[in-house]
Protein 1
Amino acid sequence: MIDKEHQNRGYGREALRLGIRSLADRFGAKEIYTAYESSSSVARDLYRSFGFRETGEAAGNDVEMRPALDGARKS
Ligand SMILES: CC(C)(COP(=O)(O)OP(=O)(O)OC[C@H]1O[C@@H](n2cnc3c(N)ncnc32)[C@H](O)[C@@H]1OP(=O)(O)O)[C@@H](O)C(=O)NCCC(=O)NCCS
């Protein structure tokens, strides 16, 4: 989560890029799951740009997504 005063400056995208890389390179993750609040189109679109797609599962307002690691956007 990025502090409200610092959103829309590229921090979320960079944090997600580094997080995915770290999980894959340091921990050998083959799959990563995340979720977005159904009201957050910014989070949904950010995850989608990295190759995350909805799995069809949801818990309350949280919509689950799963990417293909090699589908991650190179940025
Ligand atoms: C969602 C969140 C993590 C994104 O982080 P961020 O640092 O604000 O986002 P970035 O600046 O890296 O921008 C990522 C993309 O979102 C877009 N974006 C960011 N804030 C936006 C806004 N308020 N309105 C429209 N688009 C926005 C950017 O244009 C960018 O799109 P692009 O890369 O296709 O050009 C952050 O806004 C946040 O923590 N929001 C509140 C909590 C939340 O919703 N968390 C996620 C719950 S699942």
Protein 2
Amino acid sequence: MNTEQYQIEVSGIDVDVIRKDIKNIHLAVYPPTGRVRLSSPLSVKKESLRLFVISRLGWIKKHNRNMNSQIRKPEREYIQGESHWVQGQRYLLNIVEKKAAPKVEIRNKKYLDLYVRPGSDKSKREEVIKEWYRELLKSQIPSLIKKWEKELGVEITDWGVRQMKTKWGSCNTDDRRIWMNLELGKKPKHCLEYVVLHEMIHLKERHHNERFKALLDKHMPGWQSVREELNEVVYF
Ligand SMILES: [Zn+2]
């Protein structure tokens, strides 16, 4: 059978395309990572397939949200004027080249000033911004942990921030240690609090069962909408 397989990117979403001897176009989003697959008859032109995916973006986004795992976003280039999100607010990146220690500053509620040494490349810029997100989260997490330790009657021994691909947070219940995803720096602060609470509830209940949900309901009514916000893919 004649089969052609390739990948296209539409609005920051990678789509696996399979053209083969079938009658209709099928579009599917698969758990757990929200992989998108498009199967099409060989007779449909490649450009038409791209337009088809664009017309179904709303549907793909909805499914990704439901899947509760889509963290992917369009690649950042770290160039002048690019959009960057900080705690739910959009800022325009402004690169300032200066022979001094790198730093990041928010200016006029509109700009994210990134100070780097002249000639700093994309990876250097990315590193400086990521480090800034990390410090931002590290300055906010301790008070959230303190609050929920008191409310939940649990104690954690250690916590940290790290880049994770498929999860917003994790909890090692044996070591009583929680990890927060560095990407949370882009989301509104109540999303960060939801993840802290979620992971700390795991110290009382390991599984995502009815008891777990009842604890969430008790401590953060309406948590479902926060979770939805968390897994929304932001398109520019
Ligand atoms: Zn969990």
